[in-house]
Design goal:
The protein is 39% helix and 19% strand. The chain is of the alpha/beta class and 309 residues long. The structure holds zinc ion.
Length: 309
């Protein structure tokens, strides 16, 4: 008897990693019928299935809706499994807020199960334009990410504003300007006052300005976005927050980076003059400050200096 139990136990231990991976995602309630999975604020790993970012779930009378589909079929399956713990409703729609891997590489998985995929044209344009580098980034993380079938919203929204009504819930999709990635958009639930900001907002960790990021445009997008009367902001990264925290950890930092870089360039200063020109102590508690702050300044500086020539 003991021996049998022992072998059963060993069997369970052998299959455990697969189950643990599928349980990476857990949705927590934001407000009635609105949920968020808050991903790790560290790098992509095999263990987090590339989900070092947040995902939204909205339950409507006609089905469940997912905001951002994860970094491929494995994360999509984990998202689907977590959604099933919240609702019996089938996933009928997926919105993409951006072009970064974890925002859309799960589209194919959900589309094959009958979900409608929605995104702005400008978001899809970036998904297509940057596809090679996006796929390369996620695939180089671990071989478990090699199985990828990029799938885009088949009828992207034109212009800068769109609205879809699903089961009595209005989903507004808005593009303000390029943000962390070109073509980043937000999903806004006006009645629930919930804003899925995508990568317009980072809290708890420092935001990242990449070479492809235009910090001035991002600040412009942010300043328009923050006018929405949001009660709950589900950021791209970090915990669900109110506007005050978002302003402190994304808005104020972005503004200070842009102002410090612009002023230095206007004064014919060098890259090394930018950071010492301001006090950054109110941002130093943010995760990854030491690794990212210098890069953010230099990427912004190079971009703006090039444009000023
Ligand atoms: Zn992101």
């Amino acid at each position: 008897m003991f021996r049998m139990m022992k072998s059963l136990f060993l069997g369970a231990a052998l299959v455990a990693p697969t189950f643990a991976m599928a349980d990476v995602v857990k949705f927590d309630k934001v407000t009635d019928n609105v949920y968020a999975f808050i991903g790790e604020i560290n790098d992509r790993t095999k263990e987090n299935l590339g989900l070092n970012a947040n995902i939204g779930l909205v339950v409507t009378s006609e089905g469940a809706v997912i905001i951002d589909s994860g970094a491929g079929p494995l994360s999509a399956a984990a998202i689907e499994k977590a959604a099933k713990k919240i609702t019996d409703q089938k996933i009928v729609a997926v919105f993409n807020t951006g072009a970064q891997d974890h925002r859309w590489l799960g589209n194919d998985y959900f589309a094959k199960k009958g979900a409608q995929i929605y995104a702005m044209q400008t978001t899809v344009d970036t998904q297509i334009k940057m596809e090679a580098s996006i796929l390369n980034r996620i695939k180089s993380t671990d071989p478990i990410f090699h199985d990828q079938t990029p799938f885009h919203a088949p009828r992207p929204f034109q212009g800068t504003d769109a609205a879809v009504r699903i089961g009595g819930v209005t989903f507004e999709v808005k593009y303000f300007n390029d943000a962390h990635f070109p073509g980043d958009a937000v999903v806004w639930l006006p009645k629930q006052q919930v804003l899925f900001s995508g990568d317009h907002v980072y809290v708890d960790r420092l935001l990242g300005v990449h070479p492809h990021t235009h910090a001035v445009k991002w600040l412009d997008a942010y300043e328009q976005m923050i006018q929405l009367p949001a009660k709950y902001i589900v950021p791209g990264h970090g915990e669900v927050s109110d506007k005050a925290k978002v302003q402190r950890e994304t808005g104020d930092y972005l503004k200070q980076v842009v102002e410090a870089v612009k002023e230095t360039i206007d004064d014919m200063g060098a890259l090394d003059d930018v950071s010492p020109s301001r006090d950054w102590s109110q941002f130093q508690h943010l995760r990854h400050f030491d690794g990212w702050h210098g890069r953010n300044i230099s990427n912004t500086f190079q971009r703006l200096e090039m444009e000023s020539m």
